[in-house]
Write a structure and sequence with these properties.
By secondary structure, this protein is mainly beta. It has three helices and 30 strands. It folds into two domains: 191 residues, Hexapeptide repeat proteins (UDP N-Acetylglucosamine Acyltransferase, domain 1), CATH 2.160.10.10; 114 residues, Jelly Rolls.
Length: 321
Amino acid sequence: MMITKLLSLLIYKVKSIIIIIKSTTRGSYLSMFGKITSPISSFNIGNNVRVKNGYVLNAGKGKIILGNNVWINKHCEINANNLIDIGERTTIQKNVTINGDVSIGTDVIIAPNVFLSSGSHLYSHQPHLPIRVQEKICSVLPNKPILIEDDVWLGINVVVMPGVKIAKGCVIGANSVVTKDTTAYSVYAGMPAKLISNRFQLSSKSVYDFYDPETLPHIKSKINYDVNSLVSGELSFKLKSEVFQFEVISSFSKVELEIELLSNTASNIISLYGLEKKLEPGRNIIIWDDIPNYLVSELLTFRFSEEILTKIKLVQLKIED
């Protein structure tokens, strides 16, 4: 028995050392004083990641992704079911627990003692039975993924319940228990958490400049934006996927997108609601004035061919009623 335990401990340490060495080549640092209990292939650790003493990283049969510049303080525990994905520049303070299937966006601030779990115990399946017995009877336990969008601040001791989506830009007050989805750029607090105030409201405009930082909250898709440019008062970003979603408040029947194609590709196609247009190298002004009424919504959904994702620059969006 003692030999088995020593061998298990040795295996954990070897796994940890290999992952730590691989991370070091990308400028990342994982403390030697932590525990990694899954195969090396279960982890995707970005550049300049910092994980301090006392951590547990357990991907199980799933995967753990730590984006570039993620910072995790001491004594945090991350246990994946299928996937735990932590976005770029997110910071996690001491004694945070993340269990199950959880997606966390970029620039999220998580205070000490926060608890996020997509799973829960069965207590009402056959309520006359002990909870542990109910769980043995049911082969599959409840699992509802949690989504924390970009630019969210979770205060100290916050609990997020299974299946909850915390929308972009939200602030959750200390000691709150979040049981329902939130609306973007709002402040919530309490047990259960309730709306306290709005942090920011989207403005109704007809022209959106993609260099203007005030345009950022309208962008609903994942993007890579330059932090230093934002500090200097200018928005600079790159697309992360072929789908680009942008929220507008005003009604419209015509959409005009100014876009620059930096170099030619095999497929220079852009579409809005499935209505395709072709881009030419250089500056383009693309107009959609034939959008059926049944397609019009506040969420504009553009699609780009994969070949041009890294070769375009969005300049300006105009909408007309």
